[in-house]
Amino acid sequence: MSEFELGKTVPDFTLPTTNEETYQLKDQLKQQEGWHLIIFFRGSWCPACMSELDELEENKGYFDKKNINLVTISTDKLDALKDMALEHKFTFPVLADEEHEALKTYKVHYHKEDAPYEDHGAHGEPAYFLVNEKGELLYQQRQTSPFGRPSATELRKIITYITKNLK
User: Fold this and answer.
1) 57, 111, 118, 147: which has the highest count of C-beta atoms within 10 A?
2) The Thioredoxin domain covers which part of the protein (predicted)?
3) Which tens digits make up the pLDDT trace of 19-72?
4) 115 versus 57: which is more confidently predicted?
5) β-strand 127-131 against 35-40: which pairing, if any?
6) What is the CATH number of the domain that holds 121?
7) Is 1 a domain residue?
8) Domains identified in the chain, total number
């Protein structure tokens, strides 16, 4: 049985945040009501990622109203992520996974130095995991490149669809 089967509990992780705190998923599930949308992104250097994160920030009111807690994760350096979060004024948590712990646990694609094409060196690729208040997986998508990721509008449609069709 797959570790990431819909309805199954996702693995816990603990990572540093750009505001010098520690984020542990199991604690957040207990402390925050609602669902969690965990988004892995490539890094502060990625224009497609910055556009996506800016769009998420612009739509944060919708996610808050629907009780969806956004959290973003990158394999980028914590200092670079701190500068990025400050510059873009992100109000959702930005986590640094420099040791690739969450990336490996969540089976997110890692673009290694020996990949068949050059793409800014080694880094994690985009991935999305929507989990309910119990930490059970409701939706997942993993990318192998920066393109094809769902927009904020598409994520809103996915959330609406899942909400309407929950058993």
Assistant:
1) 111
2) 4-164
3) 999 999 999 999 999 999 999 999 999 999 999 999 999 999 999 999 999 999
4) 57
5) antiparallel
6) 3.40.30.10
7) no
8) 1
Three-state secondary structure along the chain?
CCCCCCCCECCCCEEEECCCCEEEHHHHHHHCCCEEEEEECCCCCCHHHHHHHHHHHHCHHHHHHCCEEEEEEECCCHHHHHHHHHHHCCCCCEEECCCCHHHHHCCCCEECCCCCCCCCCCEECCEEEEECCCCEEEEEEECCCCCCCCCHHHHHHHHHHHHHHCC
**Would you give the distance in Å from CA 155 to the centre of its chain?**
12
**Which residue in 10, 46, 49, 94 is the catalytic one?**
49
Eight-state DSSP code of residue 151: P
Would you say 37 and 126 are in contact if contact means Cβ atoms under 8 Å apart?
A: no
Residue 87 structural domain: 14-165
The predicted model scores a pTM of 0.93
What proportion of the chain, given as a percentage, has pLDDT over 90?
A: 83
Cβ atoms of residues 15 and 22 within 8 Å: yes
